[in-house]
Design goal:
The complex is a heterodimer of chains A (about 300) and B (about 300).
Chain A (H helix, E strand, L loop, with lengths): L2 H11 L17 H32 L3 H8 L2 H31 L5 H10 L1 H4 L2 H11 L6 H10 L11 H29 L3 H9 L4 H29 L3 H7 L10 H10 L4 H9 L2 H20 L2
Chain B lengths: L1 H4 L6 H38 L19 H7 L9 H32 L5 H13 L2 H14 L6 H24 L4 H9 L4 H12 L1 H17 L2 H6 L8 H9 L6 H21 L1 H9 L6
Chain lengths: ~300, ~300
Amino acid sequence: MSSTTFGAARALTAPALARPRRRAWRGGLQGSEFTWAIAFVVPYAAVFVAFVAYPVAYGLWMGHDPSLYTELFSEPIYLRTLVNTLIYLGIGVNLKMFGALLLSGFFMRRSWWTKGLLLIFVLPWAVPALPTFISIHWMLNGQWGLLNNVLWELFGIDGPGWLDTSRWLALGAVIASHIWKWMPFWTVILLAGRMAIPQELYDAAAVDGATGLQRFTHVTFPLLANLYLICTLLSTIFTLGDFNSVYFVSGGGPALSTHVLATLGIRDAFQIARPDLGVATVMSALPLMIPLVIILMRKLRTTEVQL
Amino acid sequence: MSTVALHGRAPRRPRYRLRRNLTEAAAIAFALVLMVWTLAPIYNMVAVSLERHGDVFTNNVWPEHPTLNGFWIVLSEGYWYLQYFWHQFGNSLYIGAATTFITLLIGSLASFSIGRMRLKKGWIISNAALLTYVIPASFLAIPFYSIMIKYGLANNLWAVIFAEVTFATPYAIFIFQQYGVSIPIELDEAARIDGASPLQVYLRIYLPLMAPALVAVGTYALLLAWNEYLYQFMLLSSTRSMTVPVALAQFLNSDEAPWNYMMATAIIYAIPPVAIYYAFRRRMTAGLTMGGVKG
């Protein structure tokens, strides 16, 4: 990794330094300077009001009717979707983050070929989501897909239709695709975090006779824990809003059994033309989202923005 | 073992070497598994795109008669689904370029005002940006769509550009503020004593020194706009205003999807972002480590 990555990771992992700051415009902004400063933030403030605040308020208004929620909870599709979302988050996020943690350790190896391997390994993240998810969709086709062709060639097994026979197979395929796409990204982040840990700490641990596992539990993990937590929270929110994996790999099928809240909301709004129901579907995730956002904003502010 | 142990110092080495070789072998085996996992969907994309048109529905593991014809059909718009391919490619480029420019402009102005001029109550803007960053875009999609219709921007490329700017700018402000800390504030003071206006300080001092951050955020915004699907799908409905991903997804819903043409289109569409990613990888990673990308 480059030195810039290192610096950035240090920004994330190091405790916030209270840096004394002075104002360039000492004694506060005066007259025309204040006007300039206001003029400079107006474009972003306008974007925020027009495209974030107004839509959020409008969405809250669209989904304010309690009868929408009674309607939702009486729908078996919605309840199934809720369960799917929780499974998707619980298994998908944790498997992905834990895998990324282990892989970042693997990529710390200093052999010549791991560098090249890393370049290939980040490919799923570098390639746009849509083409690869469509490719996975076709790859898992029961009749013509690559996976079943390979299974047949190698083992003589007649593989199942991964996406159109069972809810659990399809949900598993979606979760695997999500992990395939996003694990490289989090691996790179955690790798940068690991590289920011000073070598002296490991040397000191080695002098004290620490084994590989002890070095991990006593040095690496305590120093990486905060970063790991932030990444997991951030990833939970992003996964909650993940539309592409589900929409393109399983399409919510078979028989609408693998939808998550994000895709079901869009389906309600655009396929059955019930935008209010779609908004209610999405808004029913707020009890989970609001605490996550609050914790995350607090964490991000103290670890990063103050730097 | 016991015979070796008699020799005192020497015995440790072969065992150590053996263990090292075993770890190395395990690592290589693991790397191979990782390779297969990583490359399978990409291999599938390439393999299908090289199939002859009639050969897609066969049980080959690799194409028996590989041909580049699929790519030629896409590039020459030789299939009825692809008749506006270059136009749609242009739309994607237009959206990407506009998003990048506007994001950099709005983001750098706001962070200059908050971070360098220390605008009072500027933290409200920072927090608003941070909040936007953690709201999943797909959750905002439905009201966003309704509002774009109210603004009279339905089926208009600018609706998409505004959407992408909305979701790229918070990240930009975030990174610019962090990077800005490394630039000495004395430079601003000196310029100001020489009588420079805030606009001059922004143009002559702030922007040139922020160049690395501008590159990182610009790449991020460009890739975000190029790769995003949901908003483009919602907001663009006519064939001529569509972008490549929307057109590509339309293939999926047709009765007999021409998979080899689809995969060829997918590869052509994926090449620019992959090239840009590898070209700016270092800068990108530096920036991304501080935040994250939205899916």
